[in-house]
Structures are given as C-alpha cells and as structure tokens.
Amino acid sequence: MRKTFLILFTIGIIFAQNNYPIVLIHGLLGWGEEEMGGYKYWGGRNDYAQMLRDEGHTVFTVSVGPVSSNWERAIEVYAQLKGGQVDYGKAHAEKFNIIQSPDSKVYDAIYPEWDENHPVHLVGHSMGGQTARMLQYLLTQEIEGNVDTGELEESELLGNIHPNWVRSITTIATPHNGTSLADVVTKTIPFIQYFIGIAGVIGTRFYNFDLEQWGFIRGKNESWTGYVKRMRNHDAWRSKNISAWDLSIAGAQDLNDYLQADPDVYYFSIRTSTTEKKNGSPYHIPIEGTSILTRTRSKILGSRPGYWSDGSPTDSTWFENDGIVNTCSMAGPTTGSNGADPIISYDENDLLIPGQWYTLDPIELDHWNIIGHLGNDQSNELAKTILIKQVNRLNKLPPF
Fold it and tell me: For a Cys staple, 245 with which of 92, 183, 214, 251, CB 3.0–4.6 Å?
C-alpha cells in the first residue's frame, strides 16, 4: 500500500501543471512595453510578451528603474503588480538620502490578486535576474525600519512576510557574481541610444531613467544628450545604491551574502556566450556573427580580468562572455559569505526539486540577441524558441 502511494505521489508530481502568470523583468537600461513606441525590450521589433500570450500564457511586463539599485527595482516590481505607492523603506531612504515614496511612483495594479494562492513565475534578463532574487528576499523577510528599536517598516511589502508568492525564478544572462566590464553603465549607454534610434523616438519623452527618488527629473525642454550627461554625473553613482555597484563583482558579492536560494522556489539560469577561446591562449575572442556593437566589449571581457573586493584578479574562466556579462557568472550565485547556492546542469529527464539552480548549457547568442535585439532571422528564431521552451517548462512545475 505504501509503495503504491509513493508511486502515485511521484506520478502526480511529474504530471502536475500550474497556470501561474509569467512576470518579465527587464535588465539594465530597459524599458516597459509602452515606453519605446513599437520597439520592445522583450523582442525588439517582435513582441515576445504578446507571443507568449498567443501561446496561451498569462504574461505581465514591468517597467522599473533602468539604472536604479536592485532594492529599489524590486520594490517597484511589487508596487506595479499589487498597485499603490512605492515605499523604499524608511531605513533605506535615510541611509542613502533619497525620497522614500516619490509622488510620481504610484501605480494601478497589474495583478492585484497576487498572493500565496496566486503565485507567479519571475523571469529576468540581465540585471532583471538580480532584481527577481531581491524581490523574493523582500517578500520573505521582515525589514527593520529602525535598527535601534527593532521597529519594522510600515509598508505592506517590507514589514510583513509573504511566503509562497513566487514559484520559480528564471534568469537570462544575469551577472549573479557581477561582470568584469568596468563602468558597465556608461559603456552600455550606446546600446540604449541605438534602441531609441530604431524606435524612432529620439527627441521624445518616452524613455526615462526613473530616478525621482534621487530628485533627478528630466527638464521640460532638456535635450536627450543633456539628460544622459546629467545622469552620468549624478551623485547617485558615488553611492552603493545604484546599478553600477550591484553589477560589479564586489557589489554582487554583497548581494550574494543574503540573497540565498529559497527552499520553496525553483531556479533556472540561461547562459549566453558570443566568444571562443583564442588558439594557444586563455583569452576569448568574438565568434563570427557577433554584432559590431557587442564585438568590442566582448574582446575587453575576453582578455582583461575583473577584480574581487580584496583586489585579486579573476581567473581565465571569466574570459568567456556574451559582450556584457561573463558567462561563468550567469550559472548562479557562488560568491556569498555563506557559500555558493546549489547549482547543477539542467537535464530534462531529471525530477526537478526547489531550492537549487538548474543551469542550461551556454547558448551562442550575445547579451542582446537572447531577447531579440541586434540579431538576424536565425538568432531571433532561436531566442524565441528558448523563451517558449522555458515558459512551458515553468508551467509544468508542480503547484504549491
């Protein structure tokens, strides 16, 4: 009888399905569905979110601070899904001297039903993967608003525990352990200029750096060039409350100290690579077909080490990259003070268990090809196939 029960239980797990919504979280310098005219972050000239909806999936996209810290981006994801006023927390606001609840950041709910009975799958590209991990952390912790008294934050998110709100986290080309590309934000600015050019909205006000918490707002008659220059010179870059820090090797290590794998959440990492080892050398060079905008950065990443917080250089395993992120950094978090998260290679025949990372073999696409940018028909088709397969994989996970 016991043996029969175990067999039936196992079969039930294998064939269990869920219909939880997919939440797409963009990465550094990303944008929402309506911010760049017809040019989408998820898909470029194609619309991957709508493609998934046409496949029968419920899909939501969010638009969070393109250069903000993961703490602030995660809170913005929560506010957009549940609706209401953003609240970055009293302690966080005081520590970094920002506006705790900017007047402009009030949202209508995208998914007001979101709770333990209506969980979601989080899918993040690049920094969006870090943001997803941060959101899961904030959902499952009670955050102190006053360290001296132990008084909790007053916001619904930060002051309470929300278990089982997230069923899975999928990261795509995410720098879990940081990227060795120095000054990643300023070196990536040409990409956003390129995207805006394609969208045909240069000179309009569609794109916004969303830094109102820092008191940074685009002037009424301010040019795009002036806006970008002012953003680059803002005091925020000298703090640790900004994307540049979170994406650095030292900053990612700080995040990994506390953003550990949750035993109730399934984790997947999709890795990308656009380089190959140079003959007779440990260095990596771009493969044929790497886009011009990606090629230079892939050479830099493929031949120069990054540096740990103690000043020591990274080793040759960091040379393989996708033009923005070192491929080895994408598999999962390994640099935290509590040790690496469990990480294993994904095998479609495995019975998946929560609490550990399943990493896919590196895919020959660059950092932008994987979400439908800067590629050709072949790379775009591959990117679509990968995303569809992953979403179908998520829907086959057992429900809570």
Answer: 251
